[in-house]
Design goal:
five-stranded parallel beta sheet, 40% helix, Rossmann-like_a/b/a_fold, alpha/beta, 166 residues, Rossmann fold, 5 strands, 5 helices, globular
Length: 166
């Protein structure tokens, strides 16, 4: 017969948690969930006085074959996405976040963020959005489950709505 573990599992001191580096994923199409995730991220970054990186992924598989072979079309799309990303960074700075970086990648959002962006930025918290109604396209929000399961850091998923209706 084995001895019973007499140690109380709740016999510990509560330790405050603080995050040192945040990464927020925003959709290149500025979905509602991306904006809410961004709002949450800048609120945390400002409160904790920590650096924030804003990342978006250009989904190149959305291009038709002719556009994907045209360097001008791809270059123009990259410029558009980068301009949006810079607007997010400006908004974060205006809100009071002291250190803001931007990151852009190409490919599948969840995989690119987990395999390339997180190792590069090394956040201890990733904030992503999740669409609740729009299911017609792949959004970063629809990749939230992949990122939550595979990211080496903590992940907070922010919904596009509060989930409650009055």
């Amino acid at each position: 017969m084995s001895a019973k573990n007499t140690q109380d599992p709740l016999d510990f001191d509560v330790q405050p948690m603080a995050f040192r580096r945040l990464l927020v994923a925003v959709d290149e199409d500025d979905s509602t969930s991306s904006i809410r995730a961004f709002n949450y991220a800048v609120t945390l970054a400002k409160s904790y006085h920590v650096p924030l990186a804003v990342v978006t992924i250009l989904e190149t598989n959305d291009f038709n074959i002719y556009d994907s072979l045209s360097p001008d079309v791809l270059a123009n799309r990259r410029e558009e996405v980068l301009a949006k990303l810079n607007r997010y960074a400006d908004k974060a700075k205006e809100f009071g976040v002291l250190e803001v970086s931007t990151m852009i990648g190409e490919g599948k959002p969840g995989k690119m963020i987990v395999e390339r962006m997180i190792p590069e930025w090394r956040p201890d918290l990733l904030i992503v959005g999740s669409e609740t109604k729009e299911k017609s396209r792949l959004f970063i929000g629809s990749q939230a489950s992949y990122m939550a399961q595979n990211a080496p850091c903590s992940v907070i998923v922010v919904r596009s709505s509060d989930g409650y209706t009055d």
